[in-house]
Write a structure and sequence with these properties.
Elements (H helix, E strand, L loop, with lengths): L2 H22 L7 H9 L17 H13 L9 H7 L3 H28 L7 H49 L4 H11 L3 H16 L3 H12 L2 H15 L5 H58 L1
Length: 303
């Protein structure tokens, strides 16, 4: 069997495998319970772990099929808190991990086939080892991406929360009630942070829950300690009638100072990183001058 025939057979097998994979992960139907949970808002804190998904997304369909088989695997860590911040479903996350791992698994054999077609023969152990290593690396790559995006979203949430607290203070100073202050302040902004808070307040209004209880659940699910502090303060004024305008102002001020300190730290770190290339260029320049001077001395001595 010629090399060209082997390459064609390998490509055919790969295509058949991909077709079987697509057929295996056919679209699945969402259950009635999941749909009703999404509409009513009941069990909102459980939606993070529920395999509800957008079935128009291929990654979500793949993840929905994988979810029942991966839920009991200990070494597959699902960052539910980070996914909740980004509003990404667990099935979509699992589908993205599986598809990226599949790409890593397929790339080395394809590259090896192309090399064979070009007349370059390599041992079969190389694409096998490369496939496993690349698939493992790409399988865990979405975890790092999700973590970085979630941290950036939390920082943005903290910045917007400072402005939100100031709006609450203005409403409380004007004699508006605690619940109305929270709702009016959330309706002012149009960023995703204000919309997220407004959604939780509207959900609390529909279900008859206390708004600070709903926000406390949001702070717990998303790991937002700054929002938890606001909830604690508003609980005092809502349940005990305490005047907390000054406390809220101090909280907003401390939040801004913390953000400013963090930004200054990042700026200082970036400045330090800029010094390293300049110092390296200076060292190279001095080395060139030293080499030239030593060369001139040896030439002068030889003459």
């Amino acid at each position: 069997m010629s090399i060209t025939t082997q390459a064609a057979l390998l490509g055919l097998i790969l295509c058949l495998g991909l077709i079987c994979l697509v057929l295996r992960f056919a679209p699945a139907r969402a259950s009635l319970k999941e749909a009703m949970t999404h509409l009513t808002g009941e069990g909102a804190h459980l939606q993070i772990n529920t395999p509800t998904t957008d079935y128009s997304d291929f990654r979500s369909r793949v993840g929905t099929r994988l979810y029942p088989h991966t839920i009991d695997i200990d070494w597959i860590k699902i960052p539910t808190t980070d996914l909740a911040v980004l509003r990404m479903s667990v099935p979509r996350f699992l589908g993205e991990k599986a598809l990226t791992a599949l790409i890593g698994l397929a790339l080395p054999p394809i590259a090896h086939t192309l090399l064979i077609t070009a007349g370059i023969n390599l041992p079969w152990s190389l694409p096998v080892i490369g496939s496993l290593a690349l698939a493992a690396a790409l399988f865990f790559a979405p975890d790092l991406e999700i973590k970085n995006k979630a941290n950036a979203a939390r920082e943005e949430f903290a910045r917007s929360l400072g402005a939100y607290i100031e709006f609450v203070v203005l409403n409380r100073t004007g004699g508006v009630g605690a619940v109305q202050s929270l709702e009016r302040a959330a309706a002012v902004g149009d960023s995703w942070v204000f919309r997220r808070i407004d959604e939780e307040l509207q959900k609390a209004q529909r279900t008859g829950r206390a708004p600070w209880g709903q926000l406390e659940r949001l702070a717990t699910d998303l790991n937002l300690p700054d929002l938890a502090d606001l909830v604690d303060i508003m609980t005092l004024t809502g349940e005990h009638g305490a005047s907390v305008s000054e406390t809220l102002s101090a909280n907003a001020s401390s939040l801004r100072n913390a953000i400013l300190s963090k930004e200054l730290g990042k700026a200082g770190s970036a400045t330090e990183k800029l010094h390293a290339p300049l110092a390296t260029l200076g060292i190279i320049f001095m080395a060139l001058l030293t080499v030239a001077a030593i060369g001139n001395i040896f030439l002068a001595g030889g003459v």
